[in-house]
Amino acid sequence: MNPLPRFVPILGIDIPDDTGYTENDKEHQRMEELKEANRYHVKAELLQLTGAASDQELEKWANDPNCYETETCAKELAERLARRRATEGDRQEASAAVQQRLSERRQAIQDNPFDPRTEVSADAIHIASRIVKHLWIIFVLLPFAIAFVIGLFFGGIVK
């Protein structure tokens, strides 16, 4: 056994014991073992399926030093954010195009307020159907009815 104490406070020297490790080395090894014991793997299914893990989960795993897949999670999160930025730009372009068409349409209507419409309103359809029905009765059904009555009286059935 070593007659000197393991740590000499006056000199600030850490003296190795019989195994050759100092007290600080042993503490460091214990900390590394604890860190290794606390490390974990993210479920592979969550990383392989694109939408399975939320952005908050990916960010948590990417910033967690105990996670084995920090690089994978960080890469997946960066890819998602890049895709989102790209689609956001496309959405903004589409929205700007729609707004442009609407403003052009409004301007055209203001320039020429009379716009002959190609669609027919429900009221116009209702009125037209009634007119057509009455004209059909007057010009088709009524002449056949008159012809039938005249045929009965003058055709010899009724005398």
User: Structural class of the helices, strands and pairings?
Assistant: mainly alpha
- Cα-based radius of gyration, to the nearest Å: 45 Å
Q: What is the approximate shape?
A: elongated
Round the mean pLDDT to the nearest integer and report it: 76
Query: How far is it from the N-terminal to the C-terminal residue, by CA?
Result: 150 Å
Q: How would you name the oligomeric state of the polypeptide chains in this document?
A: single chain
Summarize the structure.
The chain is mainly α and about 160 residues long.
Structural summary, described in words:
A hairpin with a 4-residue loop joins strand 1 and strand 2. This protein folds into 2 domains: 82 residues, no CATH class; 31 residues. It is mainly alpha-helical and 159 residues long. The radius of gyration is 45 Å and the shape is elongated. It is built from 5 helices and 2 strands. Strands 1-2 form a two-stranded antiparallel sheet.
List keywords for this structure.
159 residues, 2 domains, 3% strand, two-stranded antiparallel ribbon, mainly alpha
Give the helices and strands, then pairings.
Layout: E1 7-8, E2 13-14, H1 23-38, H2 44-48, H3 55-63, H4 70-111, H5 122-154
Antiparallel strand pairs: 1-2
Helix pairs in contact: 3-4
